[in-house]
Design goal:
Elements lengths: L1 E7 L4 H11 L5 E8 L5 H8 L4 E3 L8 H15 L3 E4 L8 H6 L4 E5 L11 H7 L4 E8 L9 E8 L6 H25 L2 E4 L2 E4 L2 E2 L4 E2 L5
Parallel strand pairs: 1-2, 1-4, 2-3, 4-5, 7-11
Antiparallel strand pairs: 5-6, 6-7, 8-9, 9-10
Helix pairs in contact: 1-6
Bound molecules: 5-O-phosphono-beta-D-ribofuranosylamine (GRF).
């Protein structure tokens, strides 16, 4: 059983997708705790509704990033987890934090990385006139939205799309992608070895592609 900590800052719809996938038996794991840096994150309610322990660690209560990250680490390590899943956690993490969880720390980003690191990814894809957009799950390295990409899901950009419509389509894809990756991780099909990703025993040269929704 893969023991997972999920870190959130907001709605937690990805958290919900992971909770649902575990309930369906699609991920051989369990969520040991959900941590938020905001007390009003709706994802905390989702966790509580499913009897999952929660913790709130507010970044404003700490003198600096290092002290905040040390508090995060204490809580996560108390849950004794195999994987730390960033799901809309809107804080930049220190290199020390990232190093502590190297190979166990995953993030989902709403773009086809390496395109559009950072914020406002949907707007940027629209402005660039892209025909395709999507989301990526990657292991986290010290570089923002860097680190080896495990898998991506692609969605079309349709004529008439605005930011909200495109964002909703990507969100739907995220809700399939993250549980899919955690399924592989829990089964032992996905491994991180010294900065690279191995899938089913082989070095992954390009990110896995999640098939489009049926
Ligand atoms: C997602 O778009 C994710 O890609 C980004 O933050 C958002 C989180 O959404 N990192 P939710 O809180 O899971 O609904």
């Amino acid at each position: 059983m893969l023991k997972i900590a999920v870190l959130i800052s907001g709605s937690g719809s990805n958290l919900q997708a992971i909770i649902d996938a575990i309930a369906r038996g699609d991920i051989a794991g369990r969520i040991a705790g959900v941590l938020s840096n905001r007390a009003d994150a709706y994802g905390l309610v989702r966790a509580q509704q499913h009897g999952i322990p929660t913790a709130v660690i507010t970044h404003g209560d700490f003198a600096d990033r290092a002290a905040f990250d040390q508090a995060l680490t204490r809580q996560i390590d108390a849950w004794d987890v195999d994987a730390v899943v960033l799901a809309g956690f809107m804080r930049i993490l220190t290199p020390e934090f990232v190093a502590h969880y190297e190979g166990r720390l995953l993030n989902i980003h709403p773009s086809l990385l390496p395109k559009y690191k950072g914020l406002h990814t949907h707007r940027r894809a629209l402005e660039a006139g892209d025909r395709e957009h999507g989301c990526s799950v990657h292991f986290v390295s010290a570089e923002l939205d860097g680190g080896p990409v495990v898998a991506q899901a692609t969605v079309p950009v349709l004529s008439g799309d605005d930011e909200a419509a495109l964002s909703a389509r990507v969100h739907e894809a995220e809700h399939r992608l993250y549980p899919g990756v955690l399924h592989w991780l829990a089964n032992g099909e996905l491994e991180y070895r010294k900065g690279s990703v191995h899938f089913q025993g082989r070095l992954l040269a390009t990110p896995l592609e999640l098939p489009p929704a049926p």
